[in-house]
Amino acid sequence: MTLESAYWKAVLLSLLKPSIPIIQFKPEKRQPPSRSIPVESAWVGIESILADLIDRFHLGTNSCLEFGVEHGYSTVALSSFFNCITGVDTFIGDQHTVNNKDIYDETVSRLAPFKNIQLIRCAFEDWIMQDNNSYDLIHVDIVHTYAATFACGLWSATHSHCAIFHDTTSFPAVKQAVSDIARRTGKTFYNFDESNGLGILV
User: Fold this and answer.
1) Residue in 128, 134, 137 with CA at minimum distance from that of residue 88
2) Which domain holds residue 44?
3) 187 in any annotated domain
4) How many CB atoms sit inside 10 A of residue 133's CB?
5) Which CATH number characterizes residue 98's domain?
6) Which of 24, 32, 147, 159 could be stapled to 6 by a disulfide with Cβ–Cβ 3.0 to 4.6 Å?
7) Crossing angle for the helix pair 146-158 and 172-185, to the nearest 10 degrees
8) Domain count of the fold of the chain
9) What do you get for the CA distance between the two ends of the chain, in Å?
10) In a 10 Å sphere around its CB, with 0-12 CB exposed, 13-18 middle and 19+ buried, how is residue 27 labelled?
11) DSSP string of 132-174?
């Protein structure tokens, strides 16, 4: 159970507002990406729905931004579908990661063969203060608190055609934040239940 006060405040406030419908995302096809790396990841399985997601919501495939790279599994999968992907991370973990050592150098080395990936060592708070670009897709997989997910996710939803959020099933705070962002932006909330949950705002 989360003890985060911002989460419980959001839960209570949501009781006074119209509920946000969550539509189950059922992929019509599964397609493995052309690229993958042999690292453990809770994202395994999501890579198979990316092509369907792009087709379903008529997404462009020029630019993708990712908040939360860690070892690079999702980054490489996304790079199979987008011309340019920028990965933003502190690369030192957070309260919800198993390992909190500095993994920047090893991640840069691991992803070096993929020339359309650019890795930036930066906190999401600093990045969103200076980036005014718009992206075809933004992936949010940062520390799984309500406050951080809402702040990063609201910016992401307003700077992309589609924003996706990992861990909506395993972290109630993430799901609540995505629901509140949908309410704030008027976007539709889809949820893919597998692989710890993937929230989709479009």
Assistant:
1) 128
2) 20-201
3) yes
4) 9
5) 3.40.50.150
6) 147
7) 40
8) 1
9) 29
10) middle
11) ---EEEEEE-S---HHHHHHHHHHHHHSEEEEEEE-TTT-HHH
| Amino acid code (one letter) for 8 | W
d(CA 93, CA 85): 21
What single letter denotes the amino acid at residue 192? F
Please state, in angstroms and rounded to a whole number, the distance separating the CA atoms of residues 86 and 201: 20
In a domain, 10, yes or no: no
Residue with tokens 């909190």: 100
Is residue 131 in some structural domain? yes
Instruction: Check: pTM over 0.90? Answer yes or no.
Output: yes
Contact yes or no for 59/83 (Cβ under 8 A): no
Helix orientation angle between 146-158 and 5-14, rounded to the nearest 10 degrees:
60
Over residues 148-195, the pLDDT tens digits come to 999 999 999 999 999 999 999 999 999 999 999 999 999 999 999 999
CB of 87 closer than 8 Å to CB of 161: no
Cα–Cα distance, 23 to 201 (Å, whole number): 10
Count Cβ atoms below 10 Å from residue 126 Cβ, excluding itself. 12
Please report whether residue 33 resides in a domain: yes
* Block residue for tokens 């198979």: 48
